[in-house]
Amino acid sequence: MREVAVWNTLQGFTPQLLLIAFALVLPGLDYLLKKDKRPLAWFALVPLVAIAAYIVTKLFFSSEPLSMHVGTLLTLDTFSGLFMLVFISVGIVVVLASPEFIRRDRNHGEYYALVLLALTGMSVVAESNDLIALFVGLETAGISSFALSGFRKSESRSAEAATKYFIIGGFSSALTLFAISLIYGVTGTTNIEVIGQTLQGSMDALDGSRSVVLLAVVLFIAGLGFKIALVPFHMWAPDVYEGSPTPISGLLAAASKKMGFAALFKIFLIAVIVTKTDWEVAIAALAIISMTVGNLIAISQTNIKRMLAYSSIAQAGYILIALPVGTQYGLEGGLFHILTHAFMKSGAFMVVAAMGAVAVGEKLEDFKGLSKRSPFLSFSMAIFLLSLAGIPPLAGFSSKFVLFSSAVYASASGPTWLVWLAIAGVLNSALSLYYYARVIKYMYMDPGPTDRIRVTPMIGISVALALIMVIAIGIYPQAVIDICKNAAAGAFPGLPPGVP
Amino acid sequence: MFEGIPIISIILLMPIIGSILTFSLGRRESYAKWFALSFSLAALVLSVVVALQFMVDPTSRATGYHDGRGFFNYQFYEEHVWIKALGINYIVGLDGISLPLFVLTTLLCTLSVLFSWDTKLRAKEYFGLMLVLEVGVLGVFVSLDYFLFYVFWEIVLIPMYFMIGIWGGPRKDYAAIKFFIYTHVASLAMLISIMAMFFQAHTGSFSMESIALAGSINTTLFTGGFQIAIFAALLFGFGVKMPIVPFHTWLPDAHVEAPTAGSVLLAGLLLKMGGYGLIRIAIPTLPHGAASLQILMAVIAIVSILYGAVLSLAQKDLKKMVAYSSISHMGFVLLGFATFTEIGIVAGVFQMFAHGLVTAVLFMMCGVVQHKCGTRMIPSLGGLSRKMPRASTMMTIGFLASLGLPGLVSFAAEFMVLASMFQVWALWLWLPILSVVITAGYYLWALQRTMFGPLTEQIDTTKVHDVSWYEGVPVSILLFLIAIFGVFPFLMFQFINPAAHIVFGLLGGA
Questions:
Q1: Helix (H) or strand (E) holding A410
Q2: Chain B, 118-157: which have a CB under 8 Å from a chain A CB?
Q3: How many structural domains comprise chain B?
């Protein structure tokens, strides 16, 4: 009987257990394989595909909503399930693209193990109901990512990236932990929901605690702002994305960053929601600054990975719109954009990885004439970039539509300045079109080398997966929007709906 | 006849299937033009059948749309749920305002494919993109849902960006990106306005019809300030596309660099999207905003008419001259709408149709001159009528049509616009009338310097040939239509009138 009880308690933790188990076996398996290390990738895909299939079934084809609790620490519900789906999908795309990219490197087993552990940490963050669990998740994901970005340790760029990432990551963890301890000092608990309720009651009564809570809010913004590479906490991102092995850059931009948003949403919209009027203007300003600075700097980049890094910074600015808007509809847009951004950004990085695997460089110039060298890669890249710019009928447009319209709707029924978030968002979309279109111009309009690029099947599948998702979600977003809506309504019942 | 048949979707599918097939041709690029021609021709034939059916029974109950208060004359109506959570539906239909533009689109696309018959450079992509463009433009003219409308509106940009960027002239890079970003910014202004109208209307649906009706039934929904702000944003959004002065600067660059067929589609169809948006969306949905900005619209229209004409006079490049003349002629469209009279609305729509036919001829003839003589610079040309008599005849008729010779289509349209303006602003009419003189001036002067007079010695005229068959046929078809609708303009009015009446009704007239 006791075993059954334990099993029931751990049910919501099964995906993580599965990931950890496979991660522990992988390095050992490495020794059994002589030359061809590709089976390791297939082995690492097993838990990922299993979890993805499980979550997709539960989210899209099950009548009852996902709801599993691991004590008061973790909850696997629609919200965390959606995030987990994002992480796992990016994981699948990254693992598929990796074998070809790292075929000349050593330590394949560790590589895949670290990818699985990073995903474990991210999904813990998404599931966490408790600041301590959240912090453990952040650290698990963080430490695995530091090691991954330094995977090519003999390459100075990679080592530099890892060092930089490690120092910044440690710093941001310290800030986050300090914020958690402040909150604990005021409320006496680390449970996110209880914090929210306690603060709701005590904010007016205790004048002294208010300033402590606000200090914690500032520290949270800074600590998590590093994770999601928000301006002015973004300096590390371009260097790290540039130096890391390209599939790992994809993992960092498309998944690791989303983990920061999961934490941000939980902390700001549940735990410290009562102080919303204090932070909404600041966060709105940060959102606008992030998108503008990210897009402006992206224009002058000559390295595609750095350009995509700055574009990620801008995209983080868009997603952040959901916080000051603070409605369920706004959050729906934020979640939706997190999902679509995961596919388009990981897809774009995998195209770069596919080119890197056949020793084509990472400069923008290297894209010249790509349409002749590999029609598939250039078409995919064009679709990913147009989707990032928000051109219909691609996924990025649908999610931006929900996100920006949430700001317009909220401004009509709440503070009117919120409309500036939408205006800044669309102006930035137009600005970003400039550098995205330039890559397309290089690929399709400029002459370049004419030798064909051979795309190996695994990277091909990885890019094609992302491509199919970007187009399919763009043309028929209904199913995904429903899930985002349920996730927002389920996890944040206290917020106003925000739709007419 | 089309009861139960989703005929509009079928027509939309033609270029979609055609483009997919064309792109997947692989190395057999020489088949591309045949695919493009057959699928665009299929769309043309079907759209003509649709137009004839509409002519027979413009308010058919079988395929019409019921708005709950009576029949709007949207025909061939289709409605399907698309994104339920956001209130977005796939709604398409045609009425008297969209039908002429719809048929114009299938016509010009088919003729442009034919005109580009000798395109060898990346033929597969060229013809494929042309079909994608056709999908977008057709979609814009049939969409009755804002989201769908916006999707098609943006789809149009991408093939045009590639057409300018790949097959364009020497400054194609600059022109392509300028076109792309300039018009994209305008689209985004429109997008924000759409969101705002949707929220204010509280209908829970992005259907154009329901939002316009909600606003006209409950006049407190869209307050005065809201109407002015949103109408101004829409005027910007659509005005860039038309284009209106001062948002016209992308147009000369795009036109000069675009390949001929690209210019034909750009001037013949893409500019019409702006005018169509104004009369389909901005004016009927926000009548008070429109009324408040009526004088502004009229001033912009007259400035566009005169400024475009004066700039045409100064051009040395034949194509640039035609490009600037487009600004002038599209000013008449805005002027017609700005009068807020029924006849002005009809005239504006008719002018869009007329300009689509005429400007296509002009750009095609510029293409012929460029193709045969190797240059379009007026000072290098002269006396070409001796070398290319058929081309010079066609060009002469085209120029005369564009300057408003009675009996040709533009005269009827522009005369009506001026007549409607006279009803409202009486003697201020002298301002746009001035342009008639200038227009006649630059066309006749250009004609004299290129086609007539002594044969030029600046280019090698020994190798100059007359028009090729694939150039002559499309131009002849267009000239034939220009004459037909010039002599019998009422053929078109019977389509436009009832629809204009409804728009006029929403304006508070009727």
A1: helix A395-413
A2: 147, 150-151, 154-155, 157
A3: 1
